[in-house]
Amino acid sequence: MRLNSKTYPSYYTLLSGNYDFLKIDEMFDSLLDTPKKFHDFIASLKFTFEQVNKKYYLTNTFKESIITAMPKIVGGNKHLTEIPCDCGLIFTDKGFLVYLSNPTDKKLKLLVFGFTREVLTTYGMIDNDDKFSGLACSLKDGKPFNDTEGLSSFLTSILTALFFIENCDVEQKIMKPNEKHKENGNKHYNESKSDIIVLDCRWFTELIRSIPFHVKGHLRWQHCGEKFTKRKLIWVSDFEKKGYVRKATKEKVL
Description:
globular, 5 helices, 18 strands, alpha+beta, 2 domains
């Protein structure tokens, strides 16, 4: 990732406050078919973006860890009840999203605006009854369509990521303005004026080998906190008794 006005133009449009120049997928025309609807939509986006207090970048190893943990987290509906009350921005190598989360809100649990690097393509909400709604612009047989299935998966993955960041073992490195960061041979350069928190999770970078008894790597809920009343999800790497620890010869990436 190289974060600047040329690589992520939509982000810089939001920073400038010139929302009239924001590129929005034409499928939104059906959703914003009156001046009032368009004004209210832009006002909601503007309000959400102005509340952003954290900016993350997800590394490939971090995304893989989320995918691995998702069945465990979603299976217990923890992504619906144990996410933080927060407003932030998440960058990936394909684009970025702005989110507002509040699991205790009586009306809206999650609000998301999803962008490619250049265009707003996704708008999603989850209400307090856990009902999903919104618009996900996609193509099917060469024609535009609202990918409701993809929207549901997208919102679920965001909830899972927020739960993961809040409750699991995560490596965080603050990438200052004009600072570079390197992980797994990939270089990241923050040319913006804001700190970017690079998230990593190296559950898969160490292997433990031995002959007598093998235990496969797995997820486990670990008791923690005062009087061990809380739990966090951790990754237990492959291990064997009387074994040894060595670095993996190749890290797993998406």
